[in-house]
Amino acid sequence: MKRTTRMGTGAAATAAVLIGTGVITSAPANAHGYVEGPLSRSAACNVGLNADCGSIVYEPQSLEAPKGFPNSGPADGQIASAGGLFGGVLDQQGADRWYKNEVTTGPLLMDWKYTAPHSTDKWHYYMTKQGWDPNSPLTRDDLVLIEEVQHDGSKAITNPDHTIVIPQDRSGYHIILAVWDIADTVNAFYNVIDVNVVGEGIPDQDPPSVPMGLDVVSVTSGSVSLDWLDSSDDGGAVTYVIYRDGEKIATSSVSEFVDSQVTSETTYEYTIVATDPAGNSSADSDAAVAVTDRAPAVDETSPTVPGYLHSMGETTDSVDLMWNASTDESGSVEYLVFRDGTQVARTSMTMLSDSRLAPATRYSYTVTAIDDAGNISDPSNDLIVTTEAEAEPEVQPDPVVDGSWDPKASYATGDEVTYQGSTYRAVQAHTGIGDPNWITAPSLWQAVDGAAAPEPTPEPTPEPSEVGTWSATDTYATGDRVVFDGKTYEAVQSHTGNGDPNWIYAPSLWQLL
């Protein structure tokens, strides 16, 4: 909106009060923003013009509540306090309770002070109607929109001042509600400004200008997008009423609208009427005609059933699943994997390793296919598998030693022991773990009587299994080796092939050497 240097008398009075009183405001505790010209109710508390305000005097910038006013936001009776903040003191309402900024009808400059200039959607301004009760709690029904300032989502500091229009029919004590909608949160800031309108309150009987340039911007099978030029009015903000085929279907505070309640392949005629806060209405705009598109064909065919769900192997805590691919006319499917009736995965692959299972436990699996339109196939075969049991830990017998050395004892550097008729001295402090070979470790023990430390007996190296050519249908035992495509593989577990030529690549069955 174009900025102006014209100030209402409220802004001038604010400047005079601040200079005359010499008030120094405290530092904000949680910085946001508030209206300081004309003084909002919280700002007047901050500079001492309002008494008995409570702790709001320290945080006039912190009146934050959910956005969406008037459809949502603070409840009636709690609008001034943004939902009861700071004890709800600001909701006290009376004709003589609060300091009033003196203003005139016509343009009025609203000046925001931003202590944290958030990214912004818009500002919107409301004013109490003629005949409102100043001694009753403020409600939505008391207010009417008089101005809306749209923003581009950038920081609020780029547009701190707005000119609103005080309607000609207002006179005496009124309240202006300023709402600042934040772009990147669900909240807004709410400020009420108490004003005394100087003037006779001449009724507004002039309607807004007729909306011009109504145009159909875009059309689909289920929507029609419209826009038009802004109407002008001397009484404040304009509201647009949208008509489809002569029936009122919606209102809008901006000069654009999307009608999503239409049928495909249908002709519609639209007109727009502008209204002002006093209830005056313009004449109808010129009509715009739109013909909706034909609706796209609906995919109602489910994918084929995933086939041959089977296990490629189980461990104590996992099951490797595999199944045959489904087909669908869309050409794109995913798979929903269910364990004991509960979905545990969604994947585009035809295999899944289901882990974090319990050992020695029975599980039931099924798989269904789903396409882009959400059609789901019947379930695959029901696969029952049982995870492996945990192996019993081997009990190691205590080592048998000859002499005073104990393979589980703690020794300090220099300690001497005997073993198999020889004497040894500890090279460093250590505690044994029961390994009978530690006496032979030169980093721990040194023979002191000239005897050489016994050498540990080497373990025999196992002979490799006979290597043969891999067959997709043969039976193999763990450790069997085969040759396929010039490469040697070793069986990870015992199994019998089902003829699938890809099983040689399954890491749960074969390991490339």
Characterise the protein shown here.
With 513 residues, this protein is mostly beta strands. It has five domains: 9-198, Coagulation Factor XIII, Chain A, domain 1 (Distorted Sandwich), CATH 2.70.50; 215-291, Immunoglobulins (Immunoglobulin-like); 307-386, Sandwich (Immunoglobulin-like); 396-453, Carbohydrate-binding module superfamily 5/12 (Seminal Fluid Protein  PDC-109 (Domain B), Ribbon); 467-512, Seminal Fluid Protein  PDC-109 (Domain B) (Ribbon), CATH 2.10.10.90. 4% of the residues lie in helices and 36% in strands. The protein is built from two helices and 34 strands. The strands form ten sheets. Strands 2, 3, 5, 6, 8 and 9 form a six-stranded mixed sheet that branches. The chain starts with 8 loop residues before the first helix and ends with a strand. Residues 1-31 and 459-465 have low confidence and may be disordered.
What structural class do the secondary elements suggest? mainly beta
User: How far apart lie the N and C ends?
Assistant: 74 Å
Overall domain count: 5
> What shape does the CA trace take?
elongated
CATH class label of the largest domain = Mainly Beta
Q: Which percent bin holds the helix content?
A: under 10%
Question: What do we call the CATH topology of the largest domain?
Answer: Coagulation Factor XIII, Chain A, domain 1
In the CATH hierarchy, the architecture of the largest domain is: Distorted Sandwich
Strand content: 35-45%
Largest beta-sheet characterization: 6 strands, mixed
Provide mean pLDDT, rounded.
Answer: 85
So, the CATH homologous superfamily of the largest domain?
chitin-binding protein cbp21
**What is the subunit organization of this protein?**
single chain
Determine Rg (CA atoms, Å). Answer: 41 Å
